[in-house]
Amino acid sequence: MAAASTMFSDCSPSSMTARLLPLRRIHIDSTLFRSSISSPPLPCRRTISSAFAARMSAETSAKVIDGKSIAKQIRDEINIEISRMKDATGVVPGLAVILVGSRKDSQTYVRNKKKACEAVGVTSHEVNLSEDCTEEEVLNSIAGFNNDPSIHGILVQLPLPRHIDEENILNSVSIEKDVDGFHPLNIGRLAMRGREPLFVPCTPKGCIELLHRSGVEIKGKKAVVIGRSNIVGMPAALLLQRENATVTIVHSYTKNPEEITRQADIVISAAGVANMVRGSWIKPGGVVIDVGINAVDDPESHRGYRLVGDVCYQEACTVASAITPVPGGVGPMTIAMLLSNTLSSAKRVLNLK
Amino acid sequence: MAAASTMFSDCSPSSMTARLLPLRRIHIDSTLFRSSISSPPLPCRRTISSAFAARMSAETSAKVIDGKSIAKQIRDEINIEISRMKDATGVVPGLAVILVGSRKDSQTYVRNKKKACEAVGVTSHEVNLSEDCTEEEVLNSIAGFNNDPSIHGILVQLPLPRHIDEENILNSVSIEKDVDGFHPLNIGRLAMRGREPLFVPCTPKGCIELLHRSGVEIKGKKAVVIGRSNIVGMPAALLLQRENATVTIVHSYTKNPEEITRQADIVISAAGVANMVRGSWIKPGGVVIDVGINAVDDPESHRGYRLVGDVCYQEACTVASAITPVPGGVGPMTIAMLLSNTLSSAKRVLNLK
């Protein structure tokens, strides 16, 4: 981990014209906090209390949890395991990705996943269906991959066009190939003591992995998860609970989210609202995992926008003991965990440990 | 609801010799809090602070949430629905109960369930297998009921003998007949937003029903669930979350459980430790749902023991705005919810609303 003081500033005046979100990622619970914040969000520094300002003037101390580097380390480990698997069995893990329609962001995610597969030795298979395809066509694609022994993981890129029932589609993925971990049977096992899910959803798994690899103890700690989406917030809370943290989920109906969050030794924020979590929300010495990836206007950037998290990074750095940056924190971990799940699936089929 | 001041006292000196628990009910997470309390537990009054004693001297104010009367009301409603169903379709709901071995407490529970079925018009079918039966025999019984259209709910009385794999057994119950709601697919759907479980586990469902029928608002409230068993604590937390409470689960690794619990507008305690939750744990005006049913020595009782909850009732009454007694609180709701689930299952098959 590197010192945070030299990192970019998310809370500078240039984000005053922040807007909500052309590039928001699909796994964020983006509708949750609209009622509790002003839109467009204020720049972080505008409303801070004098007590907090005094704390801010102290030297920044947070360590940066470098997701990019940790994810690379994990991909390297996966690469080595796959080489060994190939030598021993002749088999390599296979991942199928189903993309419906032509959303630019979805195409980018799928392309990135394919690249990451190639780099570690996972074979990837892509099916592109047109925006107006039928639900049956999607189900047929999934059925084909369910029955194909060379495929160990199946991923349906979300969101799907509106005329297709997402629940039906996700339920049709074989539980043994549900590398996204979104099947309710996997979620149920994740929630239950003494049960083991076959797969854990990639983004929350990445959050926990960041904590583990940064030496953050979870057991007995107070944790707050902000947001309760099916794919980040809720499973993140279940994972923290499995690690024996005392977990509270903060959501749009929570009164005093700031007060509750400030009690947490560990905060995982997955609200999808730029700079919502101010420095004053963070317990001194707390650890912050920021899942949010939100685009805010930035005329100085050649793209006209830049990406910031849910957490007002500049402020939080002065209070937290460790924090993930955006970008370069949780983001790279999601694909690394997808590769990890695909490898686990292949090992399970091959009966390898 | 009646005033609590005339209720029995759980925290009197006669419970000084409290012991842990010949009659503890199977759904309580009994191993959770052993490390955090002294055993045998102290009588409530021994260690209370002077500030709390001063509060206690004030008039008691908690309303008693009368589970016995609410459960009767629900059973009456079920009885009326079943009569209508029978008139309209000729079908009545059928419940199968599988009992393995001859544990006295399990036999009592099964007998009580049969009686409750008869009283509302649910036909009950019981299978008694010997303590040394094979797992296959249990699975065969379940398979028979899975295929029997006159059976709408299947209940395997827990605990099972050690040589039988509980997970295998519970997983073999058809999801459409899982009136206990213990199948991981049901739990997964309970955890996920936008999904609906076919059945909700009976005891936590009963807790929420008590809150609803007592006019306690849940949305936006802070709730603490003490205990995280698969059959009470965890699903109770998921249900409160679905009702938009801000939920924290307190468990054996939680530091300062008293401080955390005292923040809660609603406490559901399912720890299985007599009198663990003292008056000082309760927020003034909070609502307390006590799932614990613990036996403590009582030489004055003809049985030699009496039943008390997790919550020190006498103390909590002086702080809470409403509280469930033990017995007569959550207890009677569990069977009422089992009947409700069985009726729902039959209605689903018959396509009735």
From TrEMBL, chains A, B:
InterPro entries to which the protein is assigned, alphabetical: Aminoacid_DH-like_N_sf, NAD(P)-bd_dom_sf, THF_DH/CycHdrlase, THF_DH/CycHdrlase_cat_dom, THF_DH/CycHdrlase_CS, THF_DH/CycHdrlase_NAD-bd_dom
Keywords attached to this entry: Hydrolase, Multifunctional enzyme, NADP, One-carbon metabolism, Oxidoreductase, Photorespiration
BP GO annotations: photorespiration; tetrahydrofolate interconversion
Catalyses which reaction(s): (6R)-5,10-methenyltetrahydrofolate + H2O = (6R)-10-formyltetrahydrofolate + H(+); (6R)-5,10-methylene-5,6,7,8-tetrahydrofolate + NADP(+) = (6R)-5,10-methenyltetrahydrofolate + NADPH
Domain Tetrahydrofolate dehydrogenase/cyclohydrolase catalytic residues, every copy: 65-180
SUPFAM superfamilies in the cross-refs: Aminoacid dehydrogenase-like, N-terminal domain, NAD(P)-binding Rossmann-fold domains
CDD domains for this protein: NAD_bind_m-THF_DH_Cyclohyd (cd01080)
Pathway where this protein functions: One-carbon metabolism; tetrahydrofolate interconversion
Molecular function terms, GO-annotated: methenyltetrahydrofolate cyclohydrolase activity; methylenetetrahydrofolate dehydrogenase (NADP+) activity
Record's keyword annotation contains Hydrolase: yes
Source domain of life: Eukaryota
Domain Tetrahydrofolate dehydrogenase/cyclohydrolase NAD(P)-binding: 201-348
Family to which the UniProt record says this protein belongs: Belongs to the tetrahydrofolate dehydrogenase/cyclohydrolase family.
Subunit-level organization: Homodimer.
NCBIfam families reported in the protein's UniProt record: PRK14186.1
Function: Catalyzes the oxidation of 5,10-methylenetetrahydrofolate to 5,10-methenyltetrahydrofolate and then the hydrolysis of 5,10-methenyltetrahydrofolate to 10-formyltetrahydrofolate.
Designated name of the protein: Bifunctional protein FolD 4, chloroplastic isoform X1
Species this chain originates from: Cinnamomum micranthum f. kanehirae
